[in-house]
Amino acid sequence: MWQGSGRELADLVMSPRDKPLVIVSRVPGSGELHLDTARIEEEVGDWADVVLVRNGTPTRELQRHLPENWQVFGNAARVYPRPVDGLAPGPGRYFMARDPREVERRTRELIDEVLALPGPAAAEAGPAQPVAPARVEKAGTVKGFFAEGACAWVELDDGGMAQIAQPDVVPGVRLDWLLSPKQEVQGLFDAERHTLDIAGSVLRPRLLEAYTWGQVVLCLVLTASVDRAVLSPLPGEEIEVLRADVSSNELDGVDSLLAPGQVVAARLVLEAGRRRLRLVDVDDDDPVAPAPVLVRGGLPWLVEGRDLLPPAGEESDAGEEAAVRAPEAAAVPAQGKGTPPAGAAMTGAPVPPPAPAQAADASGGPALPGPAGGPLPPDAAAAGNPASDAKARGGAALTEALLKVAELKARVERAEAAAVVLQDAAARAGQAEAELARERAEAARLRMENLRISEQRNKAQKLARKGAKSAEARPARELFSTGEEALRHEVYLAWVERIPALEKADRPLRQYGVGAGFAKAYFAQPPDIRHKAAKALVDLLTAEPGQAVPRQVHEWRTGRGGHNPPHTRDDGAVGFRMYVEENTPGARRLHFWKLPDGGIELHDVGVHDKDLA
């Protein structure tokens, strides 16, 4: 039984193997439908590698990391031929026994398919293969992208052209998300394939090299279902999130808030030794860590607001257009007199000329009679009447001319019949071309509609996620007799949510005082602002004395100029102001006093230009 992960099995499928690979999936507890793995290994063991994998998480991971329709799951098996010229061909047919009586037959069919494939590379006989030309180092400039970002064109410094293929860089990530037009690149140029391999410029940061715990990071949504989703903060890093990580409303479906291809912000935390991503406690004004660059000199691989949307257009296929293009109408003669009706059959048999016996002589009279009442041959008639030699010769010439006229007439009729057939074919081809144009226009309209709906869905789900974060079952103020008690409760809950479990011992809430008007000002704010203010208080109250707070904090001055002194109290406390929101009209600020002994006393929360003097 396969002991690795589904991704490792997918890597094995796509690797430059020397043998074909057979993957047999099994559902535990359904032995009567299991293909005979022992027999398969016995029959093809020298010809192919056989892997037995348990249906479930490994097969789901295998499906996510293989090209579309390459998967295998359930009680089934599939054969993956060995790569040719470094490229993995597609897998064979799907072998599955739907009834116990089919197991033996499906097993035999699978074995036959394996043995029909080219076997181990070392076992193949034949002439020695020519040595591939050595690849040379070349540099160039990215000129553009095609095939929906799967390939990039590069103009080499020596004037040649090359292309970069997505699988050679970061598999599964669009090249136009990694490289920018006019970016200079360098790699190994393959003159035979006209490709530039820039693997030497690919960066592969680990998760904690790119981010730190507690940061808000960008993630790509890979899958989404009713109760969970899989997010990727880095290519190859997959973290499962549950409903509680996305919404505070247990009735929300995860797939109503997230969809594959979306780029979302989530907080990276460590809980009980496990990596987790939480979207529910991320606010709009939380600073988002930039995604790492995966190709030296390139772009961050994820950008906020740039989702993986369906294609909006279709690249033209000149070969397809040429195959259906109708003949030029100008090359088809118009229907004329004597032309058969449309649809008449065209034959290659010539029209027979008039019989010589029916041809008139040169004088316009009837032909001379011959023996038995028939006309005489021209030479016989001439011999019997020497005076008519000239007429006889003229009659022969006339007969020859009539034969030629008849032949020409037959040729004209055949040409006119061919013209009708061509006109009919041209009309049908024109109709087909018009129908194809209509189908292409409809396909383009549907693609644009799909793109529009996807964009609307992403916007709607983004708004829904905001609503899911700010949902409040019952205001805490109603649960306590004093505003200060309710405030301390909300701050404690924010600390519970914001500080990872393993860090709580090292980041406890410091003791703090609450000024006379602070609780009233706090509960006068809308729920989403209180939520942000509570998080700001957690950042302030968990920082060690003298340690920088991860928000903008500065002295609360008596005037607007930087030369104005800060507010002070008679007991020596100094006023400070901290950001609750940024880049928002009417952004809130939190004011507090820093006491001489290093303690904190909360003073007020409100809009940034509020006069508190």
**Regions with pLDDT < 50 over 5+ consecutive residues?**
313-384
Biggest β-sheet strands, sense, barrel = 5 strands, antiparallel
Biggest sheet, spatial arrangement of strands? 7-6-5-8-9
Q: Please state the average pLDDT score.
A: 78
What is the straight-line distance between the termini?
A: 73 Å
Count of runs of 4 or more consecutive helical residues: 12
Class based on secondary structure composition and strand pairing? alpha+beta
Task: Kindly estimate the percentage of residues that lie in beta strands according to DSSP.
Answer: 15-25%
The general outline is elongated
Could you say how many structural domains there are in total? 4
Describe the structure.
With 613 residues, this protein is an alpha+beta fold. It has four domains: 118 residues, Glutaredoxin (3-Layer(aba) Sandwich), CATH 3.40.30.10; 66 residues, Nucleic acid-binding proteins (OB fold (Dihydrolipoamide Acetyltransferase, E2P), Beta Barrel); 139 residues, no CATH class; 132 residues, 2-Layer Sandwich (YaeB-like fold), CATH 3.30.2310. The protein is built from twelve helices and 19 strands. The strands form four sheets. A five-stranded antiparallel sheet has the order 7-6-5-8-9, with no helix packed on it. It has a five-stranded antiparallel sheet with strand order 12-11-10-13-14. Helix 1 crosses helix 3, helix 2 runs parallel beside helix 4 and helix 8 runs antiparallel to helix 9. 24% of the residues are buried. About 12% of the residues have low confidence.
